[in-house]
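Quick check before the chapter quiz. The format below is the same one you will see on the exam, so make sure you can read both the input and the output lines.
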Amino acid sequence: MFPSSPLDRRALLRGGGLLGAGALLAPASLLGARQLVQGIVRPHVDSRVLGPVPGMPVPSCALAPSLTEGPFHFDSVLFRRDMTEGRAGLPLFVKLQVVRVSGCTPVTGAVVELWHCDANGLYSGYAGQLNNTNTEGDNFLRGMQTTDGNGDVTFQTVYPGWYPGRTVHIHVKVYVGGREVVTSQLYFPDDVSDIVLNAAEAYSTRGSSGRTTNSRDGLYRSETLMGMSQQGAAYVSSLVLGIA
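Here is the expected output.
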């Protein structure tokens, strides 16, 4: 669904979405994610690839670095928790908390937008991608949510794949009062990405051979390296996003 004008989009962002905040699904805590993912196994997902994943240290209230939005963003208003649209891949819950750097206070009512490529390195909504693939008209793996009273949002998606020149990543924007306050990117530990890319069926066509790792990606920033945990048949990634 697309807004009829940029003004419509800004109004929706200020209002926190197409539905009132009370109508949105409540974000899950990391503890509660296990119950949410019980029995969730998407097409071509082999949950047996999930091994122990040590928690990564998450910076507290660090200012999120400003990074390019890349060539695959488009203005959309897709307020939803589940952004998979049936794309194959290892189930992933992305849990973010938006806070003010000054005082480390949660930001209520901020709009968080995520988008990323699928297991084959393809973004929705664009022509001329890998192998000249055209995904125009599709909206998979894109979504927006409004932060709750703790500044939290949780998205349900699949672990991203990769494409030449970039490490595995997710794009993020945060809006407050209808104004874009940060554009950044979220990253995964390389060892976790290697497990997923080499063992899960949806990624088996390409694996991890030839991919760019975090240390070789010029856009990589350790400030947005997400913490990881295993919950049932899914991974949960988490990060505190600091804004000015």
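If your answer matched, good. The first strand starts at residue 91 and ends at 100.
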